[in-house]
Amino acid sequence: MAKQMEKKRQEDFNTEFEEKVLYINRCSKVVKGGRKFSFSALILVGDGQGHVGYGFAKANEVSDAIRKGSDAARKNIYTIEMEETTIPHEIYVEWDGAKVLFKPAPSGTGIVAGSKVRSILELGGVKDVIAKSLGSSNPLNLVKATFKAFSRLRNREQCLAERKGA
């Protein structure tokens, strides 16, 4: 049985989170008096020490969407399983049309990834990794695929315990 990545709240950590607006989308609705605009915001929060979260919110004003998104992100903090400065093993994940591939990299490589995935890795504190986005470039699906990949990462001790149990 695979161990699920834990969701935690901000109160569980004593560190300050950095916030980043990843994507803002403007949507218009045609009504009798003209166009009515609404906004959606995709927000990331992270502490650079293995904890990162995302929030997606909609509102009639950009500032309200960002505020609601950051509140949602702080309620959904995930812990990234790491080995020193990289991830423990290679992983490939699909979410809707978005497909992401992560490979561990030697120390000093840095983050080799596209803009959306790079932001998540930087806020999460991963220093060395190679990532490739395959398929869709939809920001929300890329973020969800990345977090799904993080949930499937396991360290050496967990892998050995599963092998002994099987």
Structural class: alpha+beta
Number of strands: 9
CATH architecture of the largest domain: 2-Layer Sandwich
The level 1 CATH classification of the largest domain is Alpha Beta
Q: Percent of residues in beta strands?
A: 35-45%
Give the count of helical stretches. 4
Percent helix, as a range, is 25-40%
- Average pLDDT over all residues: 90
What order do the strands of the largest sheet run in, or round the barrel if closed? 1-5-4-3-2
Radius of gyration: 17 Å
Overall spatial form: elongated
Order of helices and strands: EEEEHEEEEHEHH
Can you walk me through this structure?
The protein is an alpha+beta fold and 166 residues long. The protein folds into two domains: 7-78, Double Stranded RNA Binding Domain; 81-165, Ribosomal Protein S5, domain 2 (2-Layer Sandwich). 29% of the residues lie in helices and 37% in strands. The strands form two sheets. A five-stranded antiparallel beta sheet has the order 1-5-4-3-2, with helices on both faces. A hairpin with a 2-residue loop joins strand 2 (18-31) and strand 3 (34-46). The longest helix has 14 residues, at 62-75. The chain starts with 6 loop residues before the first strand and ends with a helix. Mean pLDDT is 90; it is low at 1-5.
